[in-house]
Design brief:
Blueprint (H helix, E strand, L loop, with lengths): L1 E8 L5 H7 L6 H9 L4 E8 L3 E8 L2 H16 L3 H4 L4 E4 L1 H11 L11 H15 L5 H20 L9 H12 L9 E4 L3 H13 L4 E5 L2 H11 L2 E4 L3 H6 L3 E4 L10 H11 L6 E5 L16 E4 L1 H7 L6 H52 L5 H30 L5 H10 L21
Parallel strand pairs: 5-6, 5-8, 6-7, 8-9, 9-10
Antiparallel strand pairs: 1-3, 1-4, 2-3
Helix pairs in contact: 5-7, 5-14, 6-7, 7-14, 14-15, 14-16
Length: about 450
């Protein structure tokens, strides 16, 4: 099996496409099961966030795996496969390893260095573990990706400013509200992970008074209590919109929460363009209805506009330091992978040796029927010890050599020299690297 990652992100797709591709948390288990039921897909992990949807898979062939995964994504999203292809990036073998480590360390995030992706990757890995769609290869990849992400944040200053999608959105909001957001009344719609991050960031920035609303008032109450905010019922949304300057909307709704009619009424009560309302729409699918964007006095900051702004990038030295960590960890992972790939060949060699010993023992017993059971056992043990001693050093050494770049050739030589029949998966270094749009 080999690694394949396929996805779409803010780099390759607009919000409209990401909305259609987005996978609700409740739908992830079923999608994972559909993926591993495909002929070429043996393992799968699905990551779906506000600005990326990715599948990490262990596949038995590149083209077959690519086709299987694209078909499942096309069926899920309703986007025809030929149209979907224009939004996807593809990484195979070593490139897939590198991509996963860049994602976990925040290098591929809209706001470079943000740490939220680590939690999202961890959740995706746990979801795959729950339905048993992650096998040995993806267990190792996900565990190492999480470790690389933690190392990047611990050893460099890439997240020293505490940047996230929320802070980047607030920077854009500040441009429309005179530059200083402290003391500005705000409303957060949604009490999930992104909503909680928004509340924490707004509180730290000095925005307030702060209100929180959610379809489940109980969740809004808990979040409000933790940050000294005020929870309001979802039925009070229209009233709250009239009394705040900033709205952060981050729900999991499949339909727009902030409709044109709802926003139009709120803006009219506020005095229209004289008192602008800035809405940070961090949801995928979008919470703000597309037909509301042109309302006078309304400023909508969504994922697309954030992608265009590319705010709060860390210093080049910090990015370079993380890139160096990623490169080193990719080499380590590939060494482990090469070592793991030679294991079937070594096992086959030892099995062949055991078969030779057994065959010779049968010949000896037929020639010397006078041997007692004890004598036969002594001879058998001696032969096995000789074989094990002869094979020990070569097999240890070949494992070491296999972990080095180009190490797959040693497994091939063993198979050729001893005429070993080993069912082979696709090897990471024996295939061309295929990288899609970054």
């Amino acid at each position: 099996m080999n690694l394949l990652s396929i996805g779409a992100s803010y780099r390759t797709a607009d919000v409209a496409a990401l909305e259609r591709l987005a996978i609700p948390e409740s739908a992830v288990p079923e999608l994972l099961q559909r993926l591993v039921a495909q002929p070429y897909v043996g393992e799968a992990v699905v990551v779906s966030t506000c600005n990326r949807v990715e599948v990490y898979a262990a596949v038995s062939g590149f083209h077959g795996g690519l086709g299987d995964i694209c078909n499942v994504l096309a069926e899920h999203s309703g986007i025809p496969a030929n149209e979907l292809a224009g939004h996807l990036y593809v990484h195979y073998g070593e490139a897939a390893v590198q991509h996963s480590f860049r994602v976990s360390s925040g290098l591929d995030s809209m706001v470079v260095g943000e740490a939220q992706i680590l939690g999202q990757l961890r959740d995706a890995y746990h979801a795959a573990t729950e339905v048993d769609s992650a096998g040995r290869l993806l267990h190792e990849l996900m565990q190492q990706a999480l470790r690389v992400g933690k190392r990047a944040h611990a050893e460099t200053g890439i997240d020293r400013a505490g940047q996230s999608v929320v802070t980047a959105a607030l920077d854009v909001a500040a441009d429309h509200l005179g530059g200083d957001l402290s003391g500005r009344p705000a409303l957060v719609i949604g009490a999930g992970a992104m909503g909680a991050l928004s509340v924490a960031t707004l509180t730290r920035t000095g925005v307030g008074p702060l209100r929180i609303t959610n379809r489940s008032l109980e969740r809004a109450d808990r979040l409000a209590e933790a940050y000294g905010a005020v929870a309001v019922g979802f039925e009070e949304l229209e009233t709250a919109l009239r009394e705040v300057d900033i709205v952060v909307s981050a729900t999991a709704s499949t339909e727009p929460v902030l409709t044109r009619a709802r926003l139009e009424a709120a803006l009219a009560a506020r005095g229209g363009a004289a008192h602008p309302l800035v809405v940070l729409d961090l949801a995928v699918p979008r919470d703000v209805a597309p037909d509301a964007a042109d309302l006078p006095g309304l400023v909508v900051v969504d994922i697309d506009s954030l992608a265009a702004s590319r705010r709060a990038l860390p210093a080049a030295a910090e990015t370079a330091a993380v890139e160096q960590i990623v490169a080193s960890e990719v080499d380590n992972f590939l060494g482990w992978l090469r070592g793991a790939e030679i294991a079937p060949t070594v096992a086959a060699l030892r099995t062949r040796a055991e078969e030779v010993v057994s065959a010779e023992m049968r010949k000896l017993v037929s020639r010397r029927p006078d041997f007692t059971e004890e004598q036969r056992a002594d001879v058998s043990r001696t032969l096995h010890r000789v074989v094990q001693q002869l094979l020990h050093s070569p097999t240890v050494r070949v494992r070491q050599l296999a972990a080095e770049p180009g190490g797959d050739q040693y497994a091939a030589l063993l198979r050729e020299l001893f005429d070993l029949d080993v069912p082979l998966a696709t090897h990471a270094n024996a295939v061309p690297e295929i990288g899609g749009k970054a």
